[in-house]
Write a structure and sequence with these properties.
This is Choline kinase. It comes from Eucalyptus globulus (Tasmanian blue gum). With 274 residues, this protein is of the alpha+beta class. It folds into 3 domains: 99 residues, Phosphorylase Kinase, domain 1 (2-Layer Sandwich), CATH 3.30.200; 112 residues, Aminoglycoside 3'-phosphotransferase, Chain: A, domain 2, CATH 3.90.1200.10; 35 residues, no CATH class. Helix content is 34%, strand content 20%. A hairpin with a 6-residue loop joins strand 8 and strand 9.
Length: 274
């Protein structure tokens, strides 16, 4: 068994997770006779959670395996988003058929359908053909009917993050990052960018390449990880995705954007999906 370095899966699976996996297996028509037969493979790339591919042998075919994904919730992320809201969003999107199915839940995480697709790279976002596929899928996402109020959350979320930053920063750092000036800048941006005719939709709000998967055979796109998803101006979600085209999180300086990679005027998302 491959195990998690920090001890969550060190040596054996937690009893609660074992129970959930047995239940999931049963619903899928499988039986897990021996927990030692389960393979646990850490997956790279997640930023706010830890994710693992869980495999168990099929009942009558020991050389074939069922695959599911186990997501362990990260610690301290409640500063950035509400986990209960994220779980509700995941469940609803799953029911809409727009993401992996929710297979089971436990106190520290959940079990999801394993998507047989590859995660995109930074370079993929700038491929015109891939960009067109993302544009089409993003339009479907923006048109999702999600429960709850459809109010724009962008500005309150930024202000809440600024409040947290002020509480965590020492005076020297607060001055260096000009935190006192940011409140005024937020107000200016909100006034300048809020329009009555603005299209409001359900936005992902974190559409970087690690949150987009593509099936190589069918070329179908799946958008994953909805921690920051909420109703917002559709234009904001597209603009944020443009900024992500300038990012590469697999470098030694992931926080520095390369604006030379920013999309040109003929980007597929600018043209809109066909």
């Amino acid at each position: 068994m491959t195990v998690k370095a920090n001890g969550f899966l060190q040596g054996c699976l937690p009893e609660e997770l074992k129970k959930v996996l047995r239940s999931v297996a049963s619903e899928l028509g499988d039986v897990i006779d021996d927990m030692d037969s389960i393979q646990v493979v850490p997956l790279k790339g997640a930023m706010t959670n830890e994710v693992y591919q869980i495999n168990w042998p099929l009942n009558d075919k020991r050389d074939l395996f069922r695959k599911v994904l186990v997501r362990i919730y990260g610690e301290g992320v409640d500063l950035f988003f509400n986990r209960d809201d994220e779980v509700q969003t995941f469940e609803c999107i799953s029911k809409h058929g727009q993401g992996p199915r929710l297979l089971g839940r436990f106190s520290d995480g959940r079990v999801e359908e394993f998507i047989h697709a590859r995660t995109l790279s930074a370079a993929d976002l700038r491929d015109p053909d891939v960009s067109a596929l993302i544009a089409s899928k993003l339009r479907e996402f923006h048109n999702l009917e999600m429960p709850g109020p459809k109010n724009v959350l962008l500005w309150n979320r930024i202000r809440n993050w600024l409040k947290e930053a002020r509480s965590l920063c020492i005076l020297k750092d607060a001055k260096e990052f000009r935190l006192d000036a940011l409140e005024e800048e937020i107000c200016v941006l909100e006034e300048e960018l809020t329009r009555d005719d603005q299209a409001i939709g359900f936005c992902h709000n974190d559409l970087q390449y690690g949150n987009i998967m593509m099936d190589e055979e069918t070329r179908s796109i799946t958008i994953i990880d909805y921690e920051y998803a909420s109703y917002n101006p559709v234009a904001y979600d597209i603009a944020n995705h443009f900024c992500e085209m300038a990012a590469n999180y697999h470098t030694e300086t992931p926080h520095i954007l390369d604006y030379g990679a920013y999309p040109g005027m003929f980007c597929a998302l600018c043209r809109g999906p066909t």
